[in-house]
Structure formats: C-alpha cells, structure tokens
Amino acid sequence: MPGIVHKNFDSADEVRPFEDGKGKLALVTTDRGPVGRAVFEPGWQWSKHVKPIAGTDSCQAAHACYVVGGRMKIVMNDGTEDEVGPGDYFAAEPGHDAWVVGDEPCVLVDWVGFGDYATRS
Fold first, then answer.
1. What is the mean pLDDT of the segment spanning 49-64?
2. DSSP conformational letter for 49
3. What does the pLDDT look like over 89-103, one tens digit per residue?
4. What is the Cα–Cα distance from 89 to 64, expressed in whole angstroms?
5. Residues 54 and 118 sit within 8 Å (Cβ to Cβ)
6. Contact indicator for 95, 44 with CB cutoff of 8 Å
7. Global pTM?
C-alpha cells in the first residue's frame, strides 16, 4: 500500500445516478474499501428514488456519514427518527427511509454503506 492515496470525487471511479435525476453517488475505491460522496437533490427520498433500483422495502445499507451540506431526515423501520445537517456525523443501521429536508441539496460522505448503494439487489 502506498504511503499516500489521493483521489477526488469529481473524477470518481464510479458514478451512480438516482431515479428522476434527483442526485448521484460518486465512489472512489481504496485499499480500505469504497468511500462515497452522494448529492441528494431537493425532493429526493430513498423510497422514491433508490427503492426502484435496490428492490427492497427500505434501505438495507448501514451508514457512517459526515454531512457536508444540506439537511436529511432519517426514519428507521421501527419509527425512530432523526434529522441531520452540516457538520454532523451520523450512523444508521439497515432498515430505514430518508429524505432531503429543505430547498438545498444534501451532501454526505459515507465510509461504510455506499459500496453497494443504489445497485440492483
């Protein structure tokens, strides 16, 4: 493994668009696993814009994220909910829905759950 690994999300190894043009996921691959930066446009909701791609009733990815900008509401299948915004770290286990809150895109960086995110199951 090299002493320094330098990658940029603007020239990601893979880009996955969401349904209806409501955002995209840019992935960089590393020796330690994939890291993703997702841009969720206003009006984005997992159950509307990723569920058709994933084919599951709720998001089945675990996440460990840093919120770069915008706001997102996360609701677990058991009804537990939270809202996150700029500067927040959050972790969410599989079994949730989420959506953008407000009129600006929500930008997240995830070190855990974006490897298989927005792919056909």
1. 94
2. H
3. 999 999 999 999 999
4. 7
5. yes
6. no
7. 0.91
Please name the helix (run of DSSP H) or strand (run of DSSP E) that holds residue 75, with its range, or none: strand 71-76
pLDDT at 1 (0 to 100): 57
Helix (H) or strand (E) holding 98: strand 96-101
The CATH classification number of 9-104 equals 2.60.120
pLDDT number for residue 104: 98
Percent of the chain having pLDDT more than 70?
98
The SS3 of residue 45 is strand
Measured CA angle at 87 (ends 95, 11), to 5 deg: 80
> What pLDDT score was predicted for residue 75?
98
The answer to whether 17 and 47 are in contact (CB under 8 A) is no
**What are the boundaries of each domain within the chain?**
9-104
Specify the DSSP class assigned to residue 3: S
CA gap 110, 114 in Å, rounded: 6
Contacts of 86 (CB under 8 A, 6+ apart): 67, 68, 69, 70, 71
